[in-house]
Design a protein that fits this description.
Mean pLDDT: 92
Shape: globular
CATH superfamily of the largest domain: Aminohydrolase, N-terminal nucleophile (Ntn) domain
Radius of gyration: 23 Å
CATH architecture of the largest domain: 4-Layer Sandwich
Number of strands: 17
Number of domains: 4
Structural class: alpha+beta
Strand order of the largest sheet: 2-3-1-9-8-10
Number of helices: 26
Distance between the termini: 28 Å
Low-confidence stretches: none
CATH class of the largest domain: Alpha Beta
Strand content: 5-15%
Oligomer: single chain
Length: 588
């Protein structure tokens, strides 16, 4: 895990102090050193925060190819870099890492080398031979990268607040922040600052100031799987067993272990020395620590149980919101934040989590509601999801079009400009008529961004590298290609092929046979309507007193009590904390 920042333009070399300050502003991303370097023609300055995970003597960045002058700032991990070095005929010295492979490959092949990289990354490459800066992100956007144009210069950074420090950026409450709680696409709540989209290459000509962007990988271009379920299961099991262990670092690391299928399977395939789980005092319904303990004992790992309470939530909310930069995510990120803090206290640098199977293998109840209908879901014994199913039930006698059904299930507020509906419709069209694939693309277009962003940002706040092994390229592409019935056979059991792969790999029945999974469920909504009700109201009222009118509807919605599935109050509290954080930053 690292951070990158920089500036490109005709007079960039005269702004090295500015770039140095940008790097320092996000130093926690790479506590092993923050350095910057200028291009040989003086038209670009790149900064890099370095986190040394395996080799404390590895070369820090930015990295320079001396013969060509190509300069690289790199954030992330390339898991297949040694294989690609051999394939491309690139020799790496003993202390050279995946970043050196990227530098040499870019010098040799240009941007086309990205197609051979399997990993998570955000990178900046300046090539003085052609006077162009390149910015790129990995396929699924695991690593963030923001950018802005100003006076003929392009500035970029891993943190949006690094760019707000570079120049003024007035707050903008995007319409989708009311619809699904967070900006979508490339928008941010800061005027003039954009998030580079996943799998996107941005090219900036430092002489002319021209800018071009194009998508270098598209999931929907994968052809459907040709073969029956038995063949699919064999192929999936092989890819799973081959790819997941590659994501284990060559040092001690921790696994976020809920006790369910996704994280449990990672435990058996990766054998982490430390597992971290959560148990909330007095909340037995949310406690999966017994299941986590069985798995940890089975693999010989130390189990660390984090036991946060409602007072902890009030104490860490400001730090959590500062780490996120702007409102995103849901109540479950409270556990994630507390877990990362514990992992950091243990002196570890890498943490692994089970992100991915729900989106790619139909693991959410909303997927079952669309694929099977609300009646079938409720009859399958999932009565607890009545409030979610009710979004579709009130149209009794009318069969909703998939776009309408998906949009209703995603929305948590008004969508007057149909921005969310339009993104869902586009996803369904790109899926070519396959409903399950359309659901995956809709998730990636709406709910995915806050999931990967919160994981990266909260981990980075504690100088941790977060890895998500299920996002291996071969695994996600194969998962997407499978027909719907390979992913979900009945409303109560998504991720069919993942369960069967766990069985085929000889894992315990308790792991693949259980359907009663809580995941990292959170009691925060209950706290906000119970012991923290007065505190939450006070936080929201304080923000309301000075908040702009565009933010007030979001805040006002949080003054009403909510139910188990209502996230309005939590989102209002995040917005209040965000506004307070911005006020403090502006005054500093």
């Amino acid at each position: 895990m690292r951070g990158i920042a920089g500036l490109a333009g005709p007079d960039a070399q005269w702004h090295q102090t500015t770039v140095k300050a940008m790097g320092i502003a996000q130093h926690y991303r790479g506590p092993d050193g923050t350095m910057h370097a200028a291009g040989s023609d003086g038209r670009a300055v790149l900064s890099m925060n370095t986190l040394l995970i395996v080799d404390p003597l590895a070369h820090p960045g930015p990295y320079l190819a001396r013969t060509s002058g190509v300069l690289l700032a790199f954030n992330g991990e390339i898991y297949n870099y040694r294989q690609q070095a051999a394939a491309w005929g690139i020799e790496l010295a003993e202390k050279e890492t995946d970043a050196h492979l990227v530098l040499e490959a870019w010098t040799k092949l240009g941007p086309s080398c990205m197609d051979g990289l399997d990993g998570m990354f955000a990178l900046a490459v300046y090539d003085p031979r052609i006077g162009k800066l390149f910015l790129a992100r990995d396929r699924l956007g695991e690593k963030p990268l923001y950018w802005r144009l100003d006076g003929g210069r392009l500035a970029f950074a891993s943190e949006v607040t690094t760019l707000t420090g570079y120049g003024s950026a007035p707050l903008i409450v995007r319409p989708e922040m009311l619809a699904i709680e967070t900006p979508v696409g490339v928008d941010t709540p800061f005027q003039g600052i954009q998030l580079l989209a996943p799998a996107t290459l941005l090219t900036f000509d430092v002489v002319t100031g021209s800018l071009d962007q194009h998508t270098w990988w598209r999931l929907e271009n994968r052809l459907p799987f040709a073969g029956d379920y038995r063949q699919a299961l064999a192929a999936f099991s092989v890819v799973l067993a081959d790819q997941v262990p590659l994501r284990a670092p060559g040092c001690d690391f921790a696994l976020l272990l809920s006790g369910g299928l996704d994280s449990g399977l990672l435990a058996y395939l990766m054998r982490p020395p430390v597992c971290v789980t959560v148990s909330y005092p007095g909340q037995d319904r949310l406690d999966e620590s017994d299941a986590a303990a069985r798995i940890a004992r089975d693999i010989g790992a130390e189990l660390v149980v984090v036991e946060p309470d409602h007072i902890d939530f009030t104490k860490i909310l400001p730090h959590m919101m500062s780490a996120l930069d702007y409102p995103m995510g849901d109540a479950s990120m409270f556990f994630e934040h507390m877990a990362y803090r514990k992992v950091s206290d243990l002196g570890l640098k890498v943490v692994v989590g089970g992100l991915g199977p729900d989106e790619f293998l139909m693991g959410y109840i909303r997927h079952a509601l669309v694929l099977f209908g609300p009646d079938a879901v409720l009859k399958a014994g999932l009565d607890a999801y009545q409030p979610l199913a009710a979004k579709l039930l009130h149209a009794a006698g009318q069969e909703l079009e998939p776009v309408e059904a998906v949009t209703r299930l995603i929305l948590r507020g008004p969508d007057p400009e149909n921005r969310i509906r339009d993104r869902v419709a586009d996803a369904m069209e790109r899926a070519g008529g396959d409903l399950a694939r359309g659901l995956t693309l809709a998730d990636l277009a709406t709910a995915w961004r806050p999931l990967v962003m919160t994981s990266d940002k909260l981990a980075s706040a504690y100088a941790l590298e977060r890895r998500s092994p299920y996002l291996a390229r071969d695994l996600i592409e194969l998962s997407y290609r499978l027909p719907a019935d390979h992913k979900i056979a009945d409303p109560a059991a998504g991720k069919r092929i993942l369960r069967d792969a766990a069985k085929a790999l000889g894992l315990p029945r308790e792991l693949w046979g259980s359907r009663d999974k809580l995941g990292f469920a959170s009691p925060v909504p209950t706290w906000l309507n119970g012991p923290l009700a007065g505190w939450a109201d006070a936080q929201i009222h304080t923000a309301l007193a000075e908040a702009p009118s565009s933010l007030q509807p979001l805040l006002m919605g949080g003054l009403k009590p909510g139910g188990r599935f209502d996230r309005t109050r939590m989102q209002a509290l995040l917005a209040a904390a965000w506004f307070s954080d911005q006020t403090v930053r502006a005054a500093a």
